[in-house]
Design goal:
It is built from 21 helices and 14 strands. By secondary structure, the protein is of the alpha/beta class. The N and C termini lie far apart (66 Å).
Length: 527
């Protein structure tokens, strides 16, 4: 590609007055020929604190080779990441959601400061995906996002296992349902190498969203982290960004209202994480697209659940890849008109419909169902409202969760207190565990509650106990667990009025979450 004087990088690199900048870049190996080409920022989220992003150093090198081969000059930058899985259940988890903002800000700052002509974001763990996407939207230069891929499942007693199995085993051990030896064996085998958590948890949910929303080439993200084909798609990503630059296709051209509707449908069809609500609302705000929490339920209701994925199902992300990949999910949705906005454009220049129709289904696969015989007629995301959550809350309903529950509140003002109650076996069948002051302000940081929810399931109470919180959940949470209760307790939300023994009623079919308290009583308590 011939240099274009209109490219942002020319401001930094061209003219006699820019000799100092060129001199500094030559100190680290760039040549005049390199600096005459379009400059592509490679925003890498590599970090040595988790398996999710651990392999991204090697992947970045291959991406850069692709950029060079297509006529560009890559410049790599790095940002931070917080592992939800490592920090779960501790004060460290309060950093997780905040890290999304730091990731977005830091990539945006480097992109603006160095005036890159195009960007590639390499992401993996939960918050790196939306954080990097937010930055790409803000910069709005031709961009591609590539997910590092899922971890392979671990093997335990002949079965595929994931990190969530370890969290559930913590409760099982407390209940005497697993031996010390098996507990250690599971811990040692659940995570066999590099890659993000294996089920349709938050990382893989956001990866799926990026393919459906169009910022990632359909089929690229789903290649597992350690599969040899990952290097191939990394190289192609480097080549692709130069084509995107030539076409001058920008993130805000891709991220239309139709694209966001497709993203929500992808979460519903795959039983994805409730965190998708937080992240899609944030992305829509950056893109200037009108999207509210009330938009999720109608799309989820009309979208059938097609993918039989953990935490509620049988399979993991590597199984989806072998079955035909995320494009296969999109292709299945095309079987019924109105489920997918197939004319929405993607980063390749082709529409979602065109990309989906290229999917090749593996004969005999059991991972992705058809719309005529879905796992469930409606998708997983449900928004409830009521006198506890007047501004709404989120619950994931896949194949097996109860749709009603009525029981006495067990109220805790932080996650640690709730966890101690679970581990000491003081939570009983029928209870409603309430964890408050864990919202964005109250936490602060809106921690995920996988430690508690996993322990409840591991103790065998997953079918008889419900939980609600103004915090949030890991994508690995399963059961009747309601998060994001708004307004949060720290902002005077009605969840702050609940007391031990109050009767709480969940009615998913009516989309209600209520305490059997009068409005007057709630107001009196809040005062």
């Amino acid at each position: 590609m011939a240099p274009d004087s209109k490219l942002p990088s020319r401001v930094i690199l061209e003219g006699d007055e820019r000799a100092g900048a060129r001199s500094m870049l030559k100190a680290i190996g760039f040549t005049d020929a390199d600096l005459a080409k379009p400059i592509v920022g490679i925003a890498n989220t590599w970090i040595e604190t988790m398996p999710c992003n651990y392999h991204l150093r090697e992947l970045a090198a291959i991406v850069k080779d692709g950029v060079r081969a297509a006529g560009g000059t890559p410049m790599e930058l790095n940002t931070i990441a917080i592992s939800d899985g490592v920090t779960m259940g501790t004060e460290g988890m309060k950093a997780s959601l905040i890290s999304r903002e730091v990731i977005a800000d830091s990539i945006e700052l480097v992109g603006r400061g160095h005036m890159f002509d195009a960007m590639i974001a390499l992401v993996a763990c939960d918050k790196t995906v939306p954080g990097a996407a937010m930055a790409l939207i803000r910069l709005n230069v031709p961009s591609v996002l590539l997910y590092g891929g899922s971890i392979a499942p671990g093997k335990f007693n002949g079965k595929d296992v994931t990190l969530v199995d370890v969290f559930e085993a913590i409760g099982a051990k407390a209940a005497g349902k697993i031996s010390d030896a098996d507990f250690k064996k599971l811990e040692d085998s659940a995570c066999p190498g590099a890659g993000a958590c294996g089920g349709q948890f938050t990382a893989n949910t956001m990866s799926t969203i990026m393919e459906f929303i169009g910022l990632s080439p359909m089929g690229f993200n789903g290649v597992p982290a350690t599969d040899p084909k990952k290097a191939e798609v990394a190289y192609k990503t480097g080549e692709l960004v130069m084509d995107v630059l030539k076409r001058n296709l920008r993130p805000r051209d891709i991220l239309t209202r139709k694209a966001f509707e497709n993203a929500i449908a992808s979460v519903a069809a795959t039983g994805g994480s409730t965190n998708s609500v937080l992240h899609l609302l944030a992305l829509a705000r950056e893109a200037g697209v009108q999207l509210t929490i009330d938009d999720f339920d109608p799309i989820s209701t009309r979208t059938p659940l097609l993918a039989d994925l953990k935490p509620a199902g049988r399979f993991v992300a590597t199984d989806v890849f072998r079955a035909g990949g995320i494009p296969l999910v999109a292709k299945k949705l095309l079987e019924r008109p109105g489920l997918l906005n197939e004319d929405a454009v993607t980063v390749t220049g082709r529409t979602v419909g065109e990309e989906a129709r290229k999917a090749v289904e593996t004969a005999g696969q059991q991972v992705v169902a058809s719309v005529d015989k879905p796992l469930k007629k409606s998708g997983g995301l449900v928004i409830l409202k009521g006198n506890i959550a007047p501004d709404g809350c989120v619950v994931k309903i896949t194949a097996h969760e109860r749709l009603q529950h009525r029981g006495p509140a067990r109220v805790f003002n932080c996650e640690e207190d709730a966890m101690r109650a679970v581990m000491s076996k003081s939570i009983k069948a029928g209870d409603v565990v309430v964890i408050r002051y864990e919202g964005p302000r109250g936490g602060p940081g809106m921690r995920e509650m996988l430690s508690v929810t996993g322990a409840i399931v591991g103790e065998g109470l997953g079918e008889s106990v419900a939980l609600l919180t103004d915090g949030r959940f890991s994508g690995g949470t399963r059961g009747l667990m309601v998060g994001h209760v708004a307004p949060e307790a720290a902002r005077g939300g009605p969840i702050a009025a609940l007391a031990d023994g109050d009767i709480v009623v969940f009615d998913v079919e009516k989309r209600r979450l209520d305490a059997e308290l009068s409005d007057g009583e709630i107001k009196k308590r809040l005062a």
